[in-house]
């Protein structure tokens, strides 16, 4: 049985771990590896290694730090097939989707290869008599990232790339359900020229996270996962005096206006609702057609597409949707589908009881489509995180907008229409962080930033883009006066620009 160790001070190690957790193959339900769970001593070793490495790394000029990322990007591309296979084997998503997971993370590493430019400060010459003022961005020291299972490459790369390029050392605590790719990424960074200790990876669940949140030598914490844990991480890290950003769950609505191209909208809903088995924080889980005629047309377009959807293991190149992550997740989704039926929604496509020959023990879930869903139903209130799409019919555009805005989550949303005025109004008024106009999954590119509103994000500053450079650095502002400017003796009043 393969053992997945931590990555501390440049080497993979099980450290002091006495406990291990099974890592499953979601397509077969078999245990394929076990992952070491960090003890307090393992976390302390990782932090000690990070603290020792950080000053020299911060003193390495930004251009040299950036070059490590140039090399890293090339190495990820070299090993893309191997990384994608490893990712799919633990997560279950298709190989092409696994490559998408890696590439969307790699793009953030490409973005931070511009660190010398991104880290430039501000300068004001002659801010007062003989006075120059300048601001510089300095690393926070040791940062930590805690990541979810659903993007085991992209989300670690969102965090570690800007943190490290800015001169920090970093502790990554990836999801214990699919921990191999993060360790592989750490090994590739060493191969790319990163000094040992600048990136350490420790595995574990709640106790590892609690150790990070309480550790005096960790200055900043970035979290991505479910909303209850995001709230907890935000509150606990802040109470311990740390800088923190914590991103949570989602319930993303897509509005379909009567003038939308129904075939394009249906294709968009297929990828956004069922891609990666619905296990994306930017998945569309609620379709909101405006008017009964629009609803009937979109459902008529969706049904044959869903019935044709090819569910299968990542090892089958024809698969369009893989299994969900665990048996518990599969059971939870099945219970929610039953609750939808009991609470009066119409099950327009019934994915219940799905099995795949040869993979009877895998965590495959058949795709379901609900019509006539109302906001009181559990399938509307819960983030299902599975291949279940709910249609909530609305009478008017204003009703559809209100539904989206009244939802407690605010990660992503989209509108499908040919009417520029409606699209513009929607983008301006909706209280959601990422908006798509005829784009169902509006995940911003690396040089913009990613983040939701409301219960989808706590704290300030988004992932990647210039926000990430701000999050992983502190501003220091220097006011300098040289002797030739001092001519009038001491001053005792608060200095103003009079
Ligand atoms: P999760 O909240 O269960 O786990 C996330 C991380 O927290 C993992 O590293 C896990 O080990 C740790 N953790 C789990 N329980 C904990 C506890 N009690 N105390 C402290 N730490 C704990 O999330 P998940 O199931 O891995 O991922 C799916 C969730 O993540 C979904 O809700 C999804 O919407 C969300 N997500 C959000 C974004 C975003 O950018 N907003 C992106 C991806 C995923």
From TrEMBL:
Cytoplasm is among the record's keywords? no
What is one process in the GO biological process aspect for this record? thymine catabolic process
Q: Which UniProt keywords apply?
A: NAD, Oxidoreductase
Q: What are its E.C. numbers?
A: 1.2.1.27
Q: Which InterPro entries match?
A: Ald_DH/histidinol_DH, Ald_DH_C, Ald_DH_CS_CYS, Ald_DH_N, Aldehyde_DH_dom, MeMal-semiAld_DH
Q: Which domain of life is it from?
A: Bacteria
All copies of the Aldehyde dehydrogenase domain together span 16-478
GO MF entry, a single one: methylmalonate-semialdehyde dehydrogenase (acylating, NAD) activity
List the CDD domains hit by this protein, alphabetically. Answer: ALDH_F6_MMSDH
Q: Does the keyword Oxidoreductase apply?
A: yes
Pfam families per the record? Aldedh
The protein's name = methylmalonate-semialdehyde dehydrogenase (CoA acylating)
UniProt xrefs under Gene3D superfamilies = Aldehyde Dehydrogenase, Chain A, domain 1, Aldehyde Dehydrogenase, Chain A, domain 2
């Amino acid at each position: 049985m393969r053992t997945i160790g931590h990555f501390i001070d440049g080497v993979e190690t099980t450290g002091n771990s006495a406990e291990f957790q099974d890592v499953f193959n979601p397509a077969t339900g078999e245990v394929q590896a076990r992952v070491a769970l960090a003890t307090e001593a393992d976390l302390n070793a990782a932090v000690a290694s990070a603290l020792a490495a950080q000053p020299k790394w911060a003193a390495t000029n930004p251009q040299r730090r950036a070059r490590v990322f140039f090399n890293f990007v090339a190495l990820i591309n070299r090993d893309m097939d191997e990384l994608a296979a490893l990712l799919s084997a633990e997560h279950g998503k298709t190989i092409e989707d696994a490559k998408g997971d890696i590439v969307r993370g790699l793009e953030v590493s490409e973005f931070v290869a511009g660190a010398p430019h991104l880290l430039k400060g501000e300068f004001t010459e002659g801010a007062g008599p003989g006075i120059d003022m300048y601001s510089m961005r300095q690393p926070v020291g040791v940062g930590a990232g805690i990541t979810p299972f659903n993007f085991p490459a992209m989300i670690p790369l969102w965090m570690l790339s800007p943190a490290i390029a800015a001169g920090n050392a970093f502790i990554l605590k990836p999801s214990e359900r699919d921990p191999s790719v993060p360790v592989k990424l750490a090994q590739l960074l060493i191969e790319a020229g990163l000094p040992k200790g600048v990136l350490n990876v420790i595995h574990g669940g709640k106790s590892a996270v609690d150790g990070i949140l309480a550790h005096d030598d960790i200055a900043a914490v970035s979290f991505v996962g479910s909303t209850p844990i995001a709230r907890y991480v935000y509150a606990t890290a802040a109470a311990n005096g740390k800088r923190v950003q914590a991103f949570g769950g989602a319930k993303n609505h897509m509005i379909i206006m009567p003038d939308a191209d129904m075939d394009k909208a249906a294709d968009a809903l297929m990828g956004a609702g069922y891609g990666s088995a619905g296990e994306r924080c930017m998945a569309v889980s609620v379709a909101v057609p405006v008017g009964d005629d629009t609803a009937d047309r979109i459902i008529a377009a969706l049904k044959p597409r869903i019935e044709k959807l090819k569910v299968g293991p990542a090892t089958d190149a024809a698969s369009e949707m893989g299994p969900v992550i665990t048996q518990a997740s599969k059971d939870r989704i099945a219970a929610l589908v039953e609750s939808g039926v009991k609470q009066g929604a119409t099950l327009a496509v019934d994915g219940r009881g799905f099995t795949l020959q040869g993979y009877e023990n895998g965590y495959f879930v058949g795709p379901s489509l609900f019509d006539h869903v109302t906001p009181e139903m559990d399938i509307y209130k819960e983030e299902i995180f599975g291949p279940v799409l709910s249609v909530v019919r609305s009478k008017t555009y204003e009703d559809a907008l209100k539904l989206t805005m009244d939802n407690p989550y605010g990660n992503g949303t989209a509108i499908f229409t040919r009417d520029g005025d409606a699209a513009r109004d929607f983008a301006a008024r909706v209280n959601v962080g990422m908006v798509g106009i005829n784009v169902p999954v509006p995940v911003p590119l690396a040089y913009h930033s990613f983040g939701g509103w409301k219960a989808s994000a706590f704290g300030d500053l988004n992932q990647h883009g210039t926000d990430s450079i701000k999050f992983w650095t502190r501003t220091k502002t220097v006011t300098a006066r040289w002797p030739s400017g001092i001519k009038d003796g001491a001053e005792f009043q608060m200095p103003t620009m009079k």
